[in-house]
Structures are given as C-alpha cells and as structure tokens.
Amino acid sequence: MTVDRLSQPYSPRPDQVPVRPPRSLDERVADVQRLQRVARSIADRAQSHAFAQVLAVSSGLSLEGVRLALAHHLELDSPAEDLVRLVQAAGDCERVTVVLSANVFVGAFRAIALARAASRHVIVRPSSRDFAFAHAFVDAAIAAGDLGLSRVDTIDFKCIMHGEVHVYGRDETIRAIRAEVDRGVVVRGHGTGLGVAVISEAADPTRAAKALTDDVVAFDQRGCLSPRIVVCIGDEARAFSFAQALDAELRAAEVRVPRGTVPTEEQALATHYLATMAFAGRVWAGPTHGIGVAPRAMAPLLPPPYRHLHLATCSSDAEAEAALAPFRPVITCVGSDARALAARVAPPWARQANLGKMQRPPLDGPVDRRAPHADAER
Amino acid sequence: MRVEILSEHEALETSAALHARARAHVTAFEHALPPPEPFEALACDIARFQARAVEGYRRLCDARGVNVANLTQWEALPAVPTDAFKVARVSAFAESQTPTVFRTSGTTVGARGQHWFRTVSTYEAAAVAFGRYWLARDLAARRVPVVVLGPSPEEAPDSSLMHMCAAFVAAFGRQASASDRPRSDRATYVIDANGTLDLSTFDSCIAQSLASGEPMLVLGTSFAFVHLVDAVGKDTFALPAGSRVMQTGGYKGRSREVPADVLRGDLARIFDVDRRQIVAEYGMTELSSQFYEQTIFEPDAPEGVFAEPPWARVVPVHPDTLLPVADGDVGIAKVVDLMNVDSAVAVLTQDRVRRVRGRHGDRNHGPNPGGFELLGRAPGAPARGCSIAMDELLGGVGVDQALS
C-alpha cells in the first residue's frame, strides 16, 4: 500500500498480509544497501538550497546544521559486516510499522533500514513535527523500486494485529501505543536517552573540547546519543580550564554551524539551568550555548539540549562512575578520549565512542542498544 | 562587583532587623493598615543582605551584572531558580543555625529541594495572616474544626504544607474531633505516613461538626482529594453549612490528574458546598508566602485567579531575558517574597503565569480583584524526540509544595 496523505487512519486487515518465503541474509543486506543508495540520493538532493531549506524548517536546524547532518551523520558507507550485524539485530517478521520521532531527522534512515531488514513490509509514520526527510526518503525509495515500503500520516494502532511496531520517541508515547495494539503485536520501544562524555586526566583540553563540540553541535544536541553531561577527571582548576576551552570551541562552532530554532519552553529550561549553575557553581555561556560547572559532589542535574553541558568534576574514575550512577539507566553512549575510561563508566548496553564520534555510530542496529526490558517489549 | 561579606554576628543582627521589618508588613495587613514601608525598600535591603551572606546569590548577581548596592527596584532583583534549592544550600546561615528545614518531594534521580529556616516565626505569621484572610476571616470569633487530608506534622516533619496547616490550627482552628478522641488545638489528619486515607475518621469528624452545626475547614493536596473522590464514588460527605475547602499543589504522579475545574465540581458535589467555597492555594516549599483564590469573600473574583499578600509579588517574566512580559502576556513566575529573609527574596519558578486585571487594576484585596492566573508548569519537552528531559528522568514533577 502506497499512500501519500491518507484521509482515513491506516488500519490493516489480516487478509491484506501476504505470505512469502523468508528472505536470505544476503537479500536483506541488499535491501538495506538499496535504501543506503536512496539516502545518498537524498543527501545529493540537499545540495540544492530549496530542499535543504525545507529540511531546515522541518527539523528546526539551521541550514548549516542540516548540511552537517547529511554530510557526516547519515550512514552512507558501511562495511558489510556492519550491515550483517544490523540485519541480525533486526529479527524477522511479516510486517513492521515504524513510528518516527522528531529531532534527529536523518535517524529516519536507520529506523527504516532496520525495519526493512526485519520485514518485506514496512509502514512508516513520520513525525508530524519533522516529516520532510522521512517523506522524501520513503517516496524516493518507492520510486527506486522498493514496493514493500509505504508511509502514512496516521495509524489506528487498535487495528494492528500482526508483526511489530517500532516506536521512536518519548517513553509515554511508547506506553500509549503499547496499550493500544493487539496483544500479539510486538512493540519495540526506542525511548529517550542521553550521552555522557568523560574527559581523562591525560586529555589535552583543547583537543578534547574541539572533538566534544562536534558531538554537541550535531542535531543541536537533541539526539539520544548527544552528550549533555561531561565528567572531567582531575581537580577544579582542570575542569575550569576545560570549560574555558569548550566555551571557545562552541563559540567558534556557532559561526560555522549556527544553532537552529530553540522552542520557548526549552529556552526557559536553559535560562533556569544556567541561573541554577550560576548560583551553585560556575557558568560559561555564550549567546547560543552554556556550560555549567558543578562543584564537587553536587546533586545531579541535567541541562536541557540545544548546546548546554553540565560539567562535573571527579577526582578518580571510581568517583566518575558514582557521579553517573543516577543517570545510568538512560545512558545510551559514553564518549571519551580514553577507551579504558569509557569502558569503565559505560553501562553494558551503551555505545562507546571516541570524542567527536559520539553521533556517528556504525549502521549495525538501533543507535540505542539498551536491552529490551519488561516495559520495552512485549 | 565587590560585596563585603558579613560576619556571623553581623548576619544575625541584620537578619533579625529584616525579620522585624518583614513582620511589620504582616502586622499592618492584619490591622488593615498601609504597609509600614515601600515594598521595594525592604526587598532591596533583603537582597543586599543575601548578597553579603549567601555566596551563591552573590555569584548569581555577578552573573547577571547586578550591583546590589545600587538596587532600587524590586523588579530588578536576580531570582534564585527553584532548582538551586535542590543542588545548593540557599541560606544565609550555616546548618547548625537553621534548625528547621522543609523539603520538596523526593524522586529517584533528582535531589529534594531544601529550604532552611533560622526561625519559622516570620513564615508562620505571614502564612496565618493571609490564610485566615482568604479562608476564615468571617470565623474569627470561634475556632474552626480542621481536617487535613495529609499526614500529621510528626509523620511529615519536613513538609512545609503540613507545617502551615498546623500553624492554621494553632492560630484559628481546632481538632475536628472524631467522637472517641478528646478535643485539642490540633487538626485531625486523615492520611497516615503510608498514604492511607482514613475515611472512617473523616466521616466521624464531619458527623460531629454537623451535630454541633459548626462549619469546617478541609485542607488537602489535589492528589489527596482525587484519592478521596475515587474512594467515595457516588457517595457524599456533606459538610456543615458554611464549610470551606482548600486544595493545593500538583499531582506528581501520585494520582490520576484531574482538570482543576472538574476536581472543583467533584468536591462541591461530594461535600455539598458551593463551588466558590472551594479555594485553591498556590505555594511552594521554596517560598514563605502563599497565594489564594478569592472566591469565598469576593463575589466577582474568578476561579483560577490568585491573590498575593502585600509582602509578595508574582511577576510573569520572559523565559529567556527574565524581564517582565507585557501586561496580560504569559511568562514564567518570578516571585519576590519579603518573608524569605534568610534564603532567597526572589525565586524563579518553572510555573507559567499571567497577570489578570481587576476592574481597578491588577492588585488584589478590592472589589473585582485582580491577581495572577496559574497556567501550570512550563512543559519540558514539547518538541523533543529521543533526547531525554529532566522531567522524564524524574518521572514527572509538578508544582511542588511538598506533602512528603
């Protein structure tokens, strides 16, 4: 079923699901590779100002932010072994309905690729707030001959009786959908999370700040891998010097890749956060970013996205682990200049990355690898 | 900005003098007299004291580029965000000198906000004066039986709300005795420390008041009232004529959420009282002053519009600039509270408010009074996908006057 804009909610009937023999691993990898070629065509299309502008308006990013995302954060070249891992992680089912979230607009590609690896039949519901990339991508894929893919604007979840629903977004959205679908339907929830950066005592502050800035600027820090908490190993003076370096890098980044539109509510949270940190610790703030440096042993605080970082000072790796403990269940990625340090503080499910690569995970499965738990899968 | 830091002795002396000036505002109000001094004079003096005695406030003033020595307008006071109470000590005094602490409700990740008090006498005087004015000013001649849908102060010693309720009873209330209990100057608390609602005691209290024909005062949080509504179902607990109900606070995930208008209707039905006898109070652990709807005593007062005492002002500010918004626009509530002598005279909340003008301006205490409208907490993440919000991390938090 290929629908541009449905006037009625999508509600499949069981007899609409054809029974076909399972695809081989190679076939499924080929399906994903075809989507990769489609993604490349979309990135090429965004060379045109008009299309890039559409993506900017839809995503809320600046034009430069859109181009950065397409150039560096869309997985166009993946080693075969990554794609095999993606296919193996995807499972196999007769139909997947994908419910996309807003904010990391190129994330639609990975979500659809994962669904396509799992099934011949994929129905995509783009986010109503950020739909331009997903619309363009699905349409281009269909035009390229992928007839197992379709998109809809609304879905009547009560009518879904088969297959899987992959939901990206807030936990309450996942819960709401899970409550509606038939009991036989598997809902794979990809909920919210956050990235954490750990700066070792040996790190060069300027180099680390530069790399971390790349992670922050991508998608204006709105992704579940985006670093929002930074743990700096060392004394307070070292944390201050790192904050200073980070401040300088974020100022420079604003010239290269201006921050996009910040919703009023998020701006209010940012103001509240920065005023709190001005009271409780120290703040380095520019017109479009802010860094709060917490005194030792301060209670945990999470800054809002849109280029805000909370920097905690810890004297040792063990203290860093303890400082991050309250956030552990929602940590999806740990970036560090020191591999061993990342491995020590990262929960087992979290991705580990070098600084500057936190937003560039291999195309080997969902970005968020938290193990499914009772509330995440049925 | 260079600010001379106060010695402990100087801080105590200055604090005592400021408390006396703050209480003079309350006394004047109780005697229907004009304020003893302009609001801004005391507000700016308290801010100067706090900048000299509270290191964090000094830093905040510096960050905002405000020189407290030159302050003359209360609108210009830098406001301490409510989150600061969770992560730092917001107090002019050391822990050993602040025997009372009120805490916001706890969560798994976030720390609890803590508001430390060197003395609670100023807090109590202000709470009682303004509470009596909007809840029971016509009942001054007799002590009102009080039932609190909450745990006793002994069971919730760090709850500012329970402390306030106890202060009400001490000042103008008494126990709404269940028949088998002796009367005392203590409210009847019908929720235990485990959160169990004791409907049987509640029923006995009402029966006793009905028998004596005395109006009652029923105080509680919104979520406690929702539990009552759910427990009572279609039954009623008709209160004696002239009774009134005060409800406060948000839900914090402790019950299903019910729109204010619906809850008011449900309570009016269950208690068999006019809905204008049901008054919402807005308060926070981080403040020493409270705000009330004016429906009991002001025939023209709309529901949902809160009155301020003369010693506190609520200003909607722009979320980015923190400057006051245009008249009638929605902003984040910045509260300047002259009773917060030893902590934060100006507090930045996360609640959205809008000034409402009465026929004679937006100040209250007059015919067709104005005030401010509470529009709920600023939503944390309306346009957020997979990036987690603090609220989500905390499991959802609302307006927080802790019931604990």
**Largest sheet, strands/sense/barrel of chain B:** 13 strands, mixed
The succession of helices and strands of chain A, N to C, reads HHHHEHEHEEHEEHEHHEEEHEHE
Strand content of chain B: 15-25%
The main β sheet of chain A shows up as: 7 strands, mixed
Estimated share of beta-strand residues of chain A: 15-25%
Q: Please, how many helices of chain B?
A: 10
- Indicate the mean pLDDT of chain A: 91
**End-to-end Cα distance of chain B:** 40 Å
Low-confidence stretches of chain B: 396-404
Oligomer: heterodimer
Describe the structure in your own words.
The complex is a heterodimer of chains A (378) and B (404). Chain A is α/β, with parallel strands linked by helices and 378 residues long. Chain A is built from twelve helices and twelve strands. Chain A has a seven-stranded mixed beta sheet, sandwiched between helices. In chain A, α8 packs across α9 (236-256). Chain A is globular, with a radius of gyration of 21 Å. The two termini of chain A are 26 Å apart. The model of chain A is unreliable at 1-9 and 373-378 (pLDDT under 50). Chain B has 404 residues and is an alpha/beta fold. Chain B contains ten helices and 15 strands. Chain B has helices at residues 8-30, 39-53, 55-64, 84-87, 121-135, 160-172, 199-212, 222-232, 260-271, 390-394, and strands spanning 80-81, 100-103, 114-117, 144-149, 173-175, 188-189, 217-221, 244-248, 278-282, 291-293, 305-307, 312-317, 330-337, 346-356, 371-377. In chain B, the strands form two sheets. In chain B, strands 1, 4, 5, 6, 7, 8, 9, 10, 11, 12, 13, 14 and 15 form a 13-stranded mixed beta sheet that branches. In chain B, α9 links the parallel β8 (244-248) and β9 (278-282). Chain B is globular. Chain B starts with 7 loop residues before the first helix and ends in a 10-residue tail after the last helix. The interface between A and B is large, with 54 and 43 residues.
